[in-house]
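Structure tokens please, single chain.
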Amino acid sequence: MPQLADIRGAGLGLKRELIPQIQAAWGSPLSASIDFLEIAPENWIGAGGKAASQLAWCVERYPLVCHGLSLSLGGPHPLDEVFLQRVGQFLDTHRIPLYTEHLSYCSDGGYLYDLLPIPFTEEAVHYVAGRIRRTQDILGRRIAVENASFYVASPIAEMDELTFLRAVLAEADCDLHLDINNIYVNSVNFGYDPYAFLRGIPGERIVYGHVAGHDRQAADLIIDTHAQDVIDPVWDMLREAYVLYDTFPTLLERDSNIPPLASLMSEVDRIAGLQQACSAKAMPETPGS
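Here you go.
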């Protein structure tokens, strides 16, 4: 069974429209450049027919991680434990070693179809951490939470985003799914130094990272669409993250406006190139060299 240690290198978010291209490229350098794949369990639980066959094909050839969309860790309604039981069965069935979710909420009696920010308060820290611990108990494994992008600040805030993130991670004793693009997006939308944020995260909790593109609506507003190429400032931040925290596994997200696989792989290869360059710099010199 794949272990968390098998999640390494440069990965790609798996969209169903990409699977025929990945299958056609199997055995070529193009497919070999993908070190792991990420799926949303909500899109695959209960899948049958062609979709089930495609998933089985991927599971046999690549390590997979699950990045959830609907758990709503910060939501006001009770945690959906029936759904979590289904997630646990899915992870076990397909030998998937890691499940992550957004540090946000997306439901209030029904799904809101967006990821909304949790108020940065002490009460929310305890509430969300408790729900993460319960999730880990049900699944019988550690999970990771992702720092989320957002566009409107809560009117109730007792701390900043970084302090809130650190407090939740510590109280829940869970891992961090670090989204570099989300740091950049929030830094523009709320006017803070993204590198100060990056330097403040607990790097020992990082299990893997995301990079993605976005759409800039105004000088001070970015929408995290995952519909464009990754921009240079986000690549620069990823390089700095590797310098600070070593070369953790990193995945390219692309959710819409999806180009052909060969085009996406140029960005996956760029992740791998940064990892190789930073790893080489971190290696101590051989005596006498």
